[in-house]
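Interim report to the steering committee. The following record documents the input for Serine/threonine-protein phosphatase (467 residues).
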Amino acid sequence: MEASDGPLALPTAAFDASSCLELAAQLTAAAAEAPSALPGRVPAAYALGLLRRVERLLKAEPTVVQVHPPAGAEVVVAGDLHGQFHDLLTIFAQVGYPDAGRLYVFDGDFVDRGCWGLEIVLLLAALKAAAPRGVCLVRGNHESKYCSWVYGFRAEVMVKYGATDAKQGELGAEGGLGRRSGKADSVLRCRPGTLAPSFPAAARAAQMLPLAAVVAGNTLVLHGGLPRAPPRRATRRSLPEDELTLALLADIAAASKGGDDPEPDSREQRLAVDVLWSDPCAQPGVTAGARPGDVGVLFGPDATEAFLRDNGLSLVLRGHEGPDARTLRPDMPSIDGGWSLDHDTPCGRLYTVFSAPDYPQFGQPRYGNLGAVAVLAGPRYDEPRFVQFEAAARPPAQSFMPTEETEADLEAAEECLGGSRFGDMSGKPANGPEQQLAAAVAASRMTRRMAAGRQQRRRQQARQQHR
C-alpha cells in the first residue's frame, strides 16, 4: 500500500488490517525523509492515542501470557529488532502479516541502537490493537528507562516529536544529533523541563509488557533467560547469595512485570531482571552475574534440562544476544545466521533468535549477520523452523545514540531519570519528601549502572582490539 497524502487520523473504532497497512505505509515514507517529517504523516496525537490504547491492553495481560493457536495456525517468534524497521517489514514480506492463520510473538528489544525504534513501536502497537490475541509483545531489557536513555530511544522520540527545551541548533538542520553544532550528545544531555508526552506514553506501555509467553503449553518465549528462584529472605540492603536454583514457571507467572526500570537489588523486581538479562552458557550450573552488578544469571544445559522437566515444557526460545555478544563468548555457538541452538537436552532444547540483520546499524564492527524468525506449527508447537533473511536496504540516517558518556551525562541522568525533573515517567515532577527520596535513590542506582555499562563497553573494546 502506498502512503496517502496528509497526516493519519486515529481510527475512532478498533484498528483493523487496513489501518495497520496504512500506518505501515506512512511510517515507511517517513523513514525515508528527515526525522522531523514523521509528525506530518503520523501526528503526535495519533501516536499518543495508539500508545494509550495498547497500554490498557497490556495492563490487562498477566506476566506470562498463554498463547493458544487455533487449529492449523502457525506461530512466528521474532527476536531482537533494535530499531531496524525495514527488517521488520522484510519479516512481514517473507512470512506474512498477522492473521487468523498466523500468530506472532515479538520477543522484546524493539528499540535502541537503530534509528527507527519509534516506527517499530507504533506499528507493533497497531498490530496488537487490531489483534490482541493474535499478537503477543514480550518485554526485553531495552524496554526500560535505563536502556532507552543510554542507547538512543528517548533521544529518537525527542527529535521526531519534539522536546520543549531542545534547541533546534543543537538538533541539527535535518533532525540529527547536533552534528553541525559539534555537540553530538546534546540531546542526551538535554534537560526536559516539560517532556514531550510521546516518550512517557511509550515508557508506560513498555512497563506493562508481559515477561514471557507460553505457546500451546509446550514452548516458553522470554527475552533473556531463566531466572533464579524468588528469594525467601531478603532485606533492602542485600539479597541472599545461596539461592542459585532456578524459578518455576509458576514463580514467573506470579512475579511483577518489573516496573519502569527493574532493579536487581529489589526483592520484587529481581526475577524480572533475571528474565530480561540472563544468558545460557556451556558450563553446568547456575551462576550469578551474567552482566556487571549482579545483573542476571548464567545457566548451563543441566539447568535448562531441569527447568523443562519440572515445568512440563519442551522448548525455550529467547533473544537478547546478537553477534557482538557471541564474539565475546567463543564457547557458545555463533548467531551469525540469525539463530543458534544453545542447549540440546533429553527434555528439550533452548534456542536464541536474533532478528536484526547486519547488526548494529551504527558503529564498528558491523557483523554482516543474517536475521531470522522461528516458525512453530501444530500440534505441539515445539519444533521451530527458522526463516532467515538479509538486511533490507536502509535510507541514509544518523544515530541517536550518544558517542560517549561524560560526567555531564551522568549528572543529566541523575536529574532527569531519578530527580525532580523527570518524576515517575508520567512527566510529572516528583513532589514530596517520599517521592524525592525515591527519586534520589533511583538516580544513584542509575549513575552506578551507567558507570558499570561504560566499564563493560571499554572491556569489550579492549578484548576486540586484543583479538
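Residues 1-403 form a domain with the Purple Acid Phosphatase; chain A, domain 2 fold (CATH 3.60.21.10). The committee is asked to note this result when reviewing the revised timeline.
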